[in-house]
Amino acid sequence: MRAVKKLVVLLIILAAAGFGAYHLLSPKPEEPSGGLVRIYLIESTPTEFFLVPVDRQIKGEPSPNAALQALLDGPLADEELLASVPKSTKLLDLVVRDKLAVASFSSEIKDDFHGGSLIEAYLVEAIVNTLTEFPEIESVQILVEGEAVESIGGHIYIRNPLRRKD
Description:
Layout: H1 2-25, E1 35-44, E2 49-58, H2 64-73, E3 91-97, E4 100-105, H3 108-111, H4 117-131, E5 139-144, E6 147-148, E7 162-163
Parallel strand pairs: 4-5
Antiparallel strand pairs: 1-2, 3-4, 5-6, 5-7
């Protein structure tokens, strides 16, 4: 009987040691490094369109550059949303100074834009809202190939810096 008790105690000790070793040696799941940025995408219903905020996990620290890149990357495959900026658009430059963000985009932002006035308004608002999520930015100047333009699609005037509407 004593031998059985010793054997049971020994087995418990070995099992605990084995579990501890397994726990210490097994790879830990990687926690996502980086943070969240808020971007704005378009939700489509059978009768309407809406600009909606979407929190996006990014690599690295949240920054205006990272947020704009997430916006340009558009919706994820499993999201039933539409891109607010033409997918082919590239961010050429972003400078933030004195609470003003000056964002220069490639010509595709105009060339590949095929929406009406509402979708153009959402495109502009998505850029402005995404950037003004950062406290260091109060207004946004949108440039195309480094130049100020009157509008992207002929409906919304963007030659001057723009502020968030809410």
